[in-house]
Design goal:
The complex is a heterodimer of chains A (536) and B (189). Chain A has 536 residues and is α/β, with parallel strands linked by helices. Helix content of chain A is 25%, strand content 19%. Chain A contains twelve helices and 18 strands. The longest helix of chain A is centred in the C-terminal third of the chain and has 21 residues. In chain B, helix 1 crosses helix 2, helix 3 packs across helix 4 and helix 3 crosses helix 5. The chains are: A alpha/beta (536), B mainly alpha (189). The interface between A and B is large, with 57 and 57 residues.
Chain lengths: 536, 189
């Protein structure tokens, strides 16, 4: 059986793993870091322009080979499993949470507080923005203070966004451009954005994705990367509660198990595969899985709800100028104590909805050639805004990821099943949330002779997280604020699974910031050549 | 050159001999690679009816040519985007070429008539029989009429023609100047 030794073994190869590996390599040069990822390496920037074209022309997968056929989960919202993870595809949105997210219990009597102070997290937000390369415009709201400027100037607002901002601000709500991990100037060896309008497959590398970090680390020989290697179990010491090895399979040699030994193991496998691995690693001493004395591994799975509207407005919008870039308002991040708890962000993008070419007129007449074009032009006189709010909702304890014995991979391991459930206070305020959001859409529409074309409520929780939530108390959490598990001193979980709640805006920047903080704690242990002690 | 001509001749023969070929997959491959075979004139007649006259004759023919190329470059079984929210692994369905050829065959006689109203009626009847109510987002293989229309009208060039502006939605255009409205156009690019 191939056996690999390292100082740190990182399981998972997404954005958290990339950031952790990069920082650890800087803090502890010379230490051996192995990253083990189940999916494949897709280091093929030179092919992405062609992939993009096939995607536009034929809806072909712009990331061929980015998933594993028999490694899926019920309730998962993306199949991506590759070096770079879901952040290969992401839109690059880099919003921060707000202090309210960390103090939900003490400020509102809801959910739980995070075991970290806002001032401490803010420091790591700045670092995350530097490492990812975020271009942005600071929020004008004083509570959204930041200790450092964005590393890059904000993305140019297109003519469309300028028009949408004028329209939206007539409602009395302030909007500014959404911060994004997209280069507005050449940055970190990657090119400036050239506005290809297909950020999910950025053909130039102007939008950050973790494959760039891994490539840099490999070129400098700072890490060892084993892709296509699925870790199936973590193995405990015979008598002590420390992890001694991780065992798995190289998918190219499926009959040959592999084994990894390290003084420190870090699970960076995302909100699905991190709790899944802990649950799979059950043993006689830990029959409910590792790090699970609290019984909370795979519990409190979270995400945010969302409501959307398409609003027709009096503005000249040219659909397609830069559909991936939008406006944000953080005006509703702070719920007033005397009103029902409703927190959300508010986003506006250009859209062509309601103004697309159609085959039949309103009265059912077939439109061909010139008739179709005339009908289309007539309807395209007005513009459309796509508006969305990501809404803070809180998970019930039984919002869970479990092992599904009815669904197994080729090695017979039960696969995960995710079933989100909202807690009772969240369910109780659904009507108030709906009424509030409808009021916002109405206010925006009325601001400029607008007309709501349609509204919708998301039927899944977006930007999911949780499953290994952090906290001070080992009875009510899986790990501490550094991701160090309460039950095993040398086992860390980083990234999305550690979030107690998913906030009301995209979470990537937040869990990258938390991961960078974890790296400092892990590095302390590496430096001493021992496991990271809790009092480090 | 000689090899390429020989290849084309063989493909034309294979495509023409559709009924005689025992393997549907080979037949579909040959029909795709050689699309539209002997139906090029019908396809161009169809394009002239369903695409805007503003494109001019050469513009309409150019779109028809691009549509032919789109079919020839179609890859049945290629992996499709898995989606987000409720992802599923999907592959591209079989080539639409055999269906399109049958539809072109059925339309060839009415589209060869001089009477524009008769041509239009033939198209309307064909779409009614196929139960097609709207344009698909992308050609979906149900009917060549709506797929050709979708190919053009949902593309970047048609978007520019509608707005009479060089938005160039599918091009990489740089950030400079994007704060201004896109340059206006008098007609098709």
């Amino acid at each position: 059986m191939p056996r690999y030794e390292s100082d740190v073994c990182i399981i998972g190869g997404g954005i958290s793993a990339a950031m952790l590996a990069q920082k650890l390599a800087e803090l502890r040069p010379g230490k051996k870091i192995i990253v083990v990822e189940a999916g494949s390496k897709l280091f093929d920037l030179e092919k992405r322009m062609d992939y993009r074209r096939r995607f536009l022309d034929y809806s072909e997968n712009p990331w061929p080979g980015d998933f594993i056929e028999d490694q899926s989960a019920k309730g998962i919202i993306s199949r991506t499993m590759a070096v770079g993870g879901s952040a290969l595809h992401w839109g690059g949105t880099c919003n921060r949470f707000s202090e309210e997210d960390l103090r939900l219990h003490s400020m509102y009597g809801l959910a739980t507080d995070w075991p970290i102070e806002w001032k401490e997290l803010e420091k790591f937000y700045c670092e995350a923005e530097r490492r990812l390369g975020v271009s942005g415009q600071p929020s004008p709201i004083p509570e959204d203070w930041r200790s450092e400027p964005y590393p890059m100037p904000a993305m140019t607002m297109t003519h469309n966004l300028i028009e949408l901002k004028k329209w939206a601000e007539k409602s009395g709500i302030s909007f500014w451009t959404t911060p994004q991990a997209k280069n507005t100037v050449p940055y970190d060896g990657r090119a400036q954005c050239i506005r290809c309008n297909t950020c999910s497959i950025c053909p130039t590398g102007a939008r950050y994705s973790p494959d760039f970090t891994f490539k840099q680390l490999l070129e400098k020989k700072r890490i060892v990367l084993h892709d296509q290697t699925l870790i199936r179990r973590l193995i405990l010491h015979d008598t002590k509660d420390v992890v001694v090895s991780a065992t798995g399979v190289d998918r190219q040699r499926p009959d040959e198990p592999v084994e990894y030994h390290a003084p420190v193991f870090v699970i960076a496998s995302g909100y699905t595969w991190s709790p899944h691995l802990l649950l799979l690693s059950r043993s006689s001493r830990f029959p409910a899985g590792l790090a699970n004395k609290s019984g909370l591994v795979g519990k409190y799975m979270c995400g945010h709800a969302f409501q959307s509207a398409f609003i027709e407005i009096d503005a000249k919008i040219y659909p397609g100028m830069n559909e991936q870039h939008g406006l944000i308002s953080r005006q509703f991040f702070r719920s007033k104590p005397d009103q029902p708890f409703v927190r959300h962000d508010l986003r506006v993008w250009e859209s062509a909805a309601g103004h697309e070419p159609r085959l039949r007129s309103k009265d059912g007449r077939l439109l061909l050639g010139d008739d179709l074009l005339a009908d289309w032009r007539n309807r395209a006189q007005r513009g459309t805004a796509r508006v969305r709010g990501y809404i803070d909702v809180h998970p019930d304890r039984e919002s869970s990821l479990t092992l599904d014995d009815a669904s197994r991979n080729r090695w017979g391991d039960p696969l995960p099943k995710i079933e989100h459930r909202l807690d009772a206070p969240t369910l109780a305020r659904q009507d108030a949330i709906h009424k509030h959001m409808q009021g916002i859409f109405d206010t925006l529409a009325k601001a400029n002779n607008g007309r709501i074309l349609s509204t919708s409520t998301g039927n899944y929780l977006d930007h999911p997280a949780g499953g290994c939530r952090m906290g001070h108390d080992p009875a009510s959490s899986v790990c501490d604020s550094f991701g160090q598990t309460h039950d095993h001193e040398n086992l860390f979980v980083v990234g999305a699974p550690t979030l107690p709640a998913a906030g009301c805006t995209n979470g990537t920047l937040t869990f990258v910031a938390l991961t960078l903080r974890s790296a400092e704690k892990i590095a302390l242990g590496c430096g001493a050549g021992c496991q990271p002690a809790r009092d480090c | 050159m000689a090899n390429s001509m020989l290849r084309r001749t063989v493909l034309q023969w294979i495509a023409a001999a559709t009924g005689a070929l025992p393997f549907p997959a080979v037949r579909a491959w040959a029909q795709t690679t050689n699309f539209p075979g002997r139906h090029q004139a019908t396809l161009r007649e169809l394009a002239a009816l369903v695409l805007p006259a503003e494109l001019g004759h050469s513009g309409v023919d150019r779109i028809a040519d691009r549509f032919e190329q789109w079919i020839r470059d179609y890859r049945p079984g290629a992996g499709m985007e898995n989606g987000y929210g409720f992802p599923r692994v999907r592959t591209k369905p079989p080539s639409p070429a055999p269906i399109y050829l049958a539809q072109l065959e059925a339309l060839s006689e009415p589209l060869s008539q001089a009477d524009k109203a008769a041509k239009r009626n033939a198209i309307e009847s064909a779409l009614d029989r196929a139960g097609i109510k709207d344009l698909p987002r992308q050609p979906d293989g149900k009917h060549i009429v709506t797929d050709l229309m979708s190919f053009y009208f949902h593309g970047s060039d048609a978007n520019d023609l509608c707005y009479l502006a060089a938005i160039r939605r599918e091009s990489c255009r740089g950030l400079k100047g994007s704060d201004a409205p896109p340059p206006s156009m008098k007609g098709p690019a």
